[in-house]
Fold this sequence. Notes:
The strands form four sheets. A seven-stranded mixed β-sheet has the order 3-6-9-14-17-19-20. Strands 2-5-8-13-16 form a five-stranded parallel β-sheet, with no helix packed on it. Helix 2 runs antiparallel to helix 3 (42-52). The longest helix is centred in the N-terminal third of the chain and has 18 residues, at 18-35. It has one domain (3-182): UDP N-Acetylglucosamine Acyltransferase, domain 1, CATH 2.160.10.10. The chain contains four helices and 20 strands. It starts with a helix and ends with a strand. A hairpin with a 4-residue loop joins strand 19 (170-173) and strand 20. It is of the alpha/beta class.
Amino acid sequence: MSEIDKLEKGEWFNFGAPEIVERKLRAAKLAQEFNAIPETEPEKQEEKAREIFGSAGKNLVVHSNLKIDNGKNIHVGDNFLANYNLTVLDVGEVKIGNNVWIGPNTDIYTVTHPLTAKGRREHLSKALPVTIGNDVWICGKVTICPGVNIGNNVVIAAGAVVTKDIPDNSMAAGVPAKVIKKLD
């Protein structure tokens, strides 16, 4: 089984394998091209973001300094806004619903590594998908960890580290993020 097959089946894979590295280099090139587009040319930014992402709905806004691992594993709905310095380690799939705003300096990770030194020395990784529902506002400097599901009508407070699922109609804050308020 190839390393990409292992990755796609949710198994441990070697992130140094040539086919994995090739994906990352392709993504780095596209991100560099995107980041070279001036903020004064939002139409060109949108066009390049659509080339990078696996799919995107209407009204796509992505600001500069985008960093990605693949790009094609990112799927966003309508009315998506990503502020400056978004990092999406989309080794696994990232599904984002409609009407989602992401604040600056936010990181979304789908990749994890073994807790054992031996596994890390073997360059092992595993991809766990991230899902973000509709009508979500992720404030600035948020970290979303691998395998997390964020429900609909959710606000994630600035600086939060989301390590577990967040249910619909809630506000979460803190490190690790916990639900602090129910929303209407």
